[in-house]
Amino acid sequence: MDVIPVIDLKNGLPVQAVKGERKTYAPVKSLLTPKNDAFSLARAMLEATCAPSIYLADLDAIAGLKGHGKLISDLAEKLPAGLWVDAGAADLQKAQTILDLGAQRAIICSEALKSPADLNLITSTLPLEKTLFSLDIKNNTIITAQPGLLGNDPVTALQGLWEKGFDSFILMTLDQVGTGKGPDWPLLDKVRKALPQARLTAAGGVRDSAGLKRLSNLGLDAALVATCLHKGWVTQKSLRELKQMN
Fold first, then answer.
1. Based on the number of CB atoms within 10 Å of its own CB, is 61 exposed (0-12), middle (13-18) or buried (19 or more)?
2. Fewer CB under 10 Å: which end of the chain, C or N?
3. Would you identify the CATH topology of the domain 2-245?
4. Every domain of the chain and the residues it spans
């Protein structure tokens, strides 16, 4: 299982995400580095995890504001890992713009989607390995304005997306992000059993190595982490020990 570091960008700086309440996000304070610029933090997180990729959320772009295109392009060029970029892609043009910046994968998130036609165009045009669908959940409800997803339970929604052509998913429980209280274990178990061949990434609430081990035992392919690294709940040493155990 890959352990993928997360950086959330707002107003040019990495911020600490907590429960999806973006108005309250403050600049990151991390034990990994005293610096709070995206390059320093990304390098420190990659050094701690030896991850093949890093997840980057452009919160300004997601909110419909001017995003961090130049910074994302620079990070994609200079970092020794691929970038999974969530910049509010709701249609093919925005997804392609993210890829043109040098992203390894463009995140298609339920929060941004509005039109089934746009979703179909994305799946029929972009290579599978260039996209990753994030099902955003808060209070046990999918966050979306897309009629095909609105009101569905997460398992049914993901099965429908699999049938449309997506093969890689993030299960993002936003109300657990930054809490260290653990992801939605029953839901992850249900999704893994319903879609055994899909690439599945857990996001939200991972606290420690025991949690990462439990995700690995569930058959997850990756886990997104941030707070547990910044606070030292998960360390380079503990990740190395976990890898050796597996």
1. buried
2. C
3. TIM Barrel (3.20.20)
4. 2-245
